[in-house]
């Protein structure tokens, strides 16, 4: 069941279902709010609601690379080379950062500088 309430000059709708993230949206007209609420409830009944994104906060770069190696890389022509490159990236301590910290102020800027400084120098084609 959706909850519709007036907040100032707008109408706010909240739709909560177990197993799905809570959804909310504001509208200028109550009629629009009711229509959106009905649509979201129908989608919830069909299990067609957006996925819960809170799981993304627990992922590390290494988790994403592992999944990419299992699902995407095998379908490529250069899979062996790409596997080797990604395996090397997984050895780097930077791969253990959680994805939510990439744009978070708690990630020290020096960590990125230290990481880039620890990279081997590029090969010269002289």
Give an account of the 3D structure.
By secondary structure, the chain is an alpha+beta fold. The protein folds into two domains: 2-51; 56-117. Helices cover 38% and strands 13% of the residues. Strands 1-2-3 form a three-stranded antiparallel beta sheet, covered by helices on one side. Strand 1 and strand 2 (10-15) form a beta hairpin. The longest helix is centred in the N-terminal third of the chain and has 16 residues, at 30-45. The chain is elongated.
List how many beta strands DSSP finds.
Answer: 3
Give the count of structural domains.
2
- Biggest sheet, strands in spatial order? 1-2-3
- Give the assembly state of these chains: single chain
Provide the structure class: alpha+beta
So what's the overall shape? Answer: elongated
State the order of secondary-structure elements, H for helix, E for strand: EEEHHHH
Helix content: 25-40%
Gyration radius, rounded: 23 Å
Contiguous runs where pLDDT drops below 50 for at least 5 residues: none
Mean pLDDT: 79
Count of individual helical segments: 4
Secondary-structure blueprint of this entry?
Layout: E1 2-7, E2 10-15, E3 23-27, H1 30-45, H2 61-71, H3 79-90, H4 109-117
Antiparallel strand pairs: 1-2, 2-3
């Amino acid at each position: 069941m959706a909850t519709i309430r007036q907040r100032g000059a707008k109408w706010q709708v909240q739709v909560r279902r177990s197993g799905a993230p809570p959804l909310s949206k504001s509208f200028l007209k109550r009629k629009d709010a009711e229509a959106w609420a009905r649509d979201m409830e129908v989608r919830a009944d069909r299990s067609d609601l957006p996925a819960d994104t809170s799981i993304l906060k627990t992922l590390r770069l290494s988790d994403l690379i592992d999944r990419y190696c299992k699902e995407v890389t095998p379908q490529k022509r250069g899979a062996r080379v790409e596997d080797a490159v990604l395996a090397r990236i997984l050895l780097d301590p930077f791969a253990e950062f959680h994805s939510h910290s990439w744009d978070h102020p708690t990630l020290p800027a020096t960590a990125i500088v230290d990481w880039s400084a620890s990279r081997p120098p590029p090969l010269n084609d002289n």
